[in-house]
Amino acid sequence: MTRLGGGVLSLFWSPLCAVGSHGPGGPNAQICVSVFGASIVPERPRLLVVLWKGNFTHDLVREAGTLAVSVLAEGQEGLLAPLGLRSGRDGPKLGGLDWGLTPEGDPVFGGAAGQVRGRVIEGFDLGDATAFLVGVVGVVDGRGGPLRWQAAQRVVGEAFLARWAEKSARDRAAAAGLLRWLGDGAG
Predict the structure, then answer these.
(1) Do 120 and 54 touch, CB atoms closer than 8 A?
(2) What is the 3 state secondary structure string of the chain?
(3) Whole-number pLDDT of residue 13
(4) Do 19 and 57 contact (CB within 8 A), yes or no?
(5) What are the tens digits of pLDDT across the range 3-16?
(6) Measured distance CA(183)–CA(187) in Å, rounded
(7) Domains delineated in the chain
(8) What is the pLDDT of residue 158?
(9) What contacts 105, CB < 8 A, 6 or more positions away?
(10) Residues of the chain with pLDDT under 50
């Protein structure tokens, strides 16, 4: 039987991105591998940003209606642990990082391959996640090539990868019962 997940399916992941938003407690951001172009009309650029409902940033985006995407550049692997292994629910997690705020109050990260500011047009419930259709209201081009998960894994070290695997296993277990899937009446 063909193995589902990883392999060729990982080629559909976008470059690693830090997606940030804000709320009454301040700004927060997370690592995201699901940010995709969603428009062929250059005057109306849109993104589709998929955030798992268990992430604190998901709730901030839903409430604020704005977000910022920093496309991480090669060399920014150091952002993966603080933004990908901890929850903003446990306290501020941007301390000591190179970041600033958009006019809307959403965090962006210095040294990124690029940054995008956006406003949520609509959210699509995926069961375990929400796909936010985002209208792009600002773009800053950066330097360097985008960081992809396959390349990051070669740099971050075994300790990080073990922690990431543990967190991913917990997240997958929680998502499995929530996601919409074939034959469940959702499509």
Answers:
(1) no
(2) CCCCCCHHHHHHCCCCEEEEEEECCEEEEEEECCEEECCCCCCCCEEEEEEECCCHHHHHHHHHCEEEEEECECCCHHHHHHHHCCCHHHCCCCCCCCEEECCCCCEEECCCCEEEEEEEEEEEECCCEEEEEEEEEEEEECCCCECCHHHHHCCCCHHHHHHHHHHHHHHHHHHHCCCCCCCCCCC
(3) 81
(4) yes
(5) 445 678 777 788 99
(6) 7
(7) 11-175 (2.30.110.10)
(8) 94
(9) 22, 27, 64, 66
(10) 1-4, 187
Nearest to 153 by CA among 80, 58, 68, 71: 80
With 0.85 as the threshold, say if the pTM is over it: yes
Side chain identity at residue 95, one-letter code: G
Contact between 163 and 132 (Cβ < 8 Å): no
Amino acid at 111: G
**How many Å apart are CA 90 and CA 133, to the nearest integer?**
28
Q: Are 76 and 29 within 8 A, CB to CB?
A: no
